[in-house]
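TA notes. Do not distribute before section.
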Amino acid sequence: MVKVIVKNYVKKEKVKHLVEIFIQMKNNVEKYEGCLSYNIYKDEDNEKIITLIHEWETIEHVDNYYKSSYFLEVLEKLVEYLEKESEINIYSKISWVFY
């Protein structure tokens, strides 16, 4: 399993609208092959930080999603909502058998 965490730094006046876009994205992304979940979180200390956490079966599924025309179209639109570049971290579950 692969977990993707995307921390977004949103312009204050754009937070509400961007959350609406992320909710629409949730409905679309969860239909992609290999997507196990897609969730939206707000930072309790800073309302301008919205974090997306999604889980995928494999890194190949993540790559396919990030290369999709849907994601690339959404990415172009998101730039106007952000104060700075989003932080993206991709994690793979550790199998204790290998340690």
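Switch to the second chain here.
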Amino acid sequence: EANLLRLLSVLTPFIYGIILAFLLGPFVRFFELNIFGMFRWKQSLKRLLAVILTLLITLEVTILFFSFIIPQIVLSLGSISVKLPEYVIILENLLNEWMAIINLNQDWSNLILDSSENLLQSFISTIQAYLPKLLGYSWQFTKTVFNLIVGIAIAIYITLDKERFVLQVKKFHYFVFGQKVTDDLIDLSRLSLNMMHRFILGKALDSFIICVICYLGMLLLKLEYPVLISVVIGITNMIPVFGPFIGAVPGALILLIVSPIQALWFILFIIVLQQFDGNYLGPRILGDSMGLPSLWIMFAIIVG
């Protein structure tokens, strides 16, 4: 097991490179055929320009996205940390009101409050214990960034010389499995990769639209921290079936501390939003991107 983990650690840049080449492949092919295809240049030059254009657009979109999102998230987290003592007092008062409503005696209320204080102290102690490990986390982050940079270089090599790599893999499979089995595997792989590309792109578009709708809806409902919560909703929406519910939990907890009424409105809004996404937007986008009617997408989601 240790040797396997060590091998995977060494192969991490190549894994990143293969994943990036897989994700960027459709964009490279689109630019190569539709933009540079009209010029009578060498195929290698068209491929190189398509790769450069894809990387530049990806980098620009990533920078614009994070330049807008990161400051808003930092601002939201800073506001939460500043208002945390006030939120704790509000939560304690809310607990006392609920205890009075359900006629909970004083002994039980003291036990709950003491348990909450002990839990908070344990949480603080855990954070203090893990602070010395920040250096290790920093090294791991640096290593991940390095592997990602190397992975980008590997993805460029794979994309530029894709036909040669495919030919080498095909020869290897011909040698191991024979021609007929290899041809069937190639057809299945092409169909699967095409469906995976369309699904990922369609799901990404669906999650982006849900993120924007969630942000606008939270603004209209005047809920706190719309950017932070909407980004969490959009990211977790990429997870099939359970993603929307996973993303709604931290947002509801944050708003519950701020105001139970806001948390209730948020939960109702997320239920309506996910019904819209699951029954209309998701099947329509994924059906269009994968070449399937919306009915079969809904069938696959419900039955699966």
